[in-house]
Amino acid sequence: MTVIVCIFCRPILELMQTPRDIIDGAYNYIFVIFLGIPATYLYNLLSGIIRSLGDSRTPLVFLIFSSVINVALDFFTILVLGMGEEGAAWATVIAQAVSGLLCLLYMKKKFSILKMEGEEWKPDGQYMKILCGIGIPMGLQYSITAVGSVILQVAVNSLGSMAVAAVTAGTKVILFLACPFDALGATMLPTAARMWGLKSWTVSTRLKGGPDYGFAYSVLALGTVFFFGQYIALMFADPGETELIRNIRTFLTVNSLFFIPLVFVNGVRFMIQGLGYSKFAMIAGVCEMAARAFVGFCLVPVFGYTAVCIASPAAWIAADLFLVPAYRQVMKNLSVLFGRTERLED
Predict the structure, then answer these.
(1) Under 8 Å CB-to-CB from 112, ≥6 apart: which residues?
(2) pLDDT-derived band of residue 192, with 50, 70 and 90 as boundaries?
(3) Contact, 301 vs 155, CB < 8 A?
(4) Is the predicted pLDDT of residue 41 greater than 80, yes or no?
(5) Residues 206, 195: contact at Cβ < 8 Å?
(6) Closest by CA position to 189, among listed 262, 261, 130, 273
(7) Rounded to whole angstroms, how far apart are CA atoms 334 and 192?
């Protein structure tokens, strides 16, 4: 994967209609990020194994440590070495590699169960089948969503570098503000899986608290953007760049207005996935992709930057239109399943 994307990096950027005044910087950045794909794999794989053994705190500590390294290297490579976009990319890759290596050293020292011997090195087809059955739908879900984002990015690129800068800055802030929603999904999935494994008909009641927290946070995030959006935009633009500041604030406000649909996207989708319905989660990803593609192909050429701002909210709503009925069907199926199980046990 690393070799292929590095070779075709420049053609991909050209195919995406990246504006000429920023394509060189984009290439310098993304090429190094692509070189760091093995480091990304290393951390994600090893941190996942450590979490599966009941230790979710250590990978977080390593991630925080690597984030500090990333920030420090950003200052050093950009301000001291003058490496520009390439320096920022190297800072990210090095930080990811450090976190991955720390996970590896920790695993070797902490978990003796992971030291494979003899027959344990041989591949097991049955385990591979189980892993692929769980992992492929999840991977396709993220890939499908990413394809929709790429399609939208092509439309944004057609609006010029000013729009690209505004969306890039706004997206970073929205991703930061959406971290609690990601945490909600990460919590709902294993909790739902555990409830299913126990054949306990408390799935619905146990998981209702998650969306409640999500709704409360959505209001808080919207208030933060409404009152401090101007100052947040100034983190990415000079005071004289009034158009850029206005565009960033518009992007933040429109997206934060629709955080409640995002609560359902993360909460319901991951809960359904944890209950064994991975295909439903994947279909929700298809809905998101279709919505972003529609906005990119049909609305951006007509309404310009305003349409770009509603792309993610449209994707979240499209996913919810599928997920809410799917949730009801899953609950109905599990009600029948658990009811039969209880009668069999009796």
Answers:
(1) none
(2) confident
(3) yes
(4) yes
(5) yes
(6) 273
(7) 12
Question: Residue 279: its pLDDT value, please?
Answer: 79
What's the DSSP call for residue 121?
G
Burial class (CB in 10 A: 0-12, 13-18, 19+), 331: middle
- CA–CA gap between residue 127 and residue 123 (Å, rounded): 8
Rg of the Cα trace of the chain? 22
State how far the Cα of 300 lies from the Cα of 313, in Å rounded to an integer: 14
Measured from the Cβ of residue 220, the count of other Cβ atoms closer than 10 Å reads 13
Long-range Cβ pairs for the range 231-234 (8 Å, 24+): 232/173, 233/169
Distance CA 33, CA 87 (A): 11
pTM assigned to the model: 0.72
**What would the two tokens of residue 215 be?**
């709704």
CB 210 within 8 A of CB 187: yes
Average pLDDT taken over every residue of the chain: 84
Which one-letter amino acid corresponds to residue 170?
G
User: Which tens digits make up the pLDDT trace of 102-160?
Assistant: 999 998 888 887 877 777 788 888 888 888 877 777 777 777 777 888 888 888 888 88
Scored b (16 or more CB within 10 A) or e, 118-134 reads eeeeeeeeeeeeeeeee
Distance CA 14, CA 123 (A): 41
Encode pLDDT of 306-333 as tens digits: 999 999 999 999 999 999 898 888 878 7
Q: Are 270 and 186 in contact (CB under 8 A)?
A: yes
Going from the C-alpha of 226 to that of each of 75, 259, 308, the distances in angstroms are: 30, 13, 19
**Token output for 240:** 């004289």
Helices (H) and strands (E) in the chain, counts: 17, 0
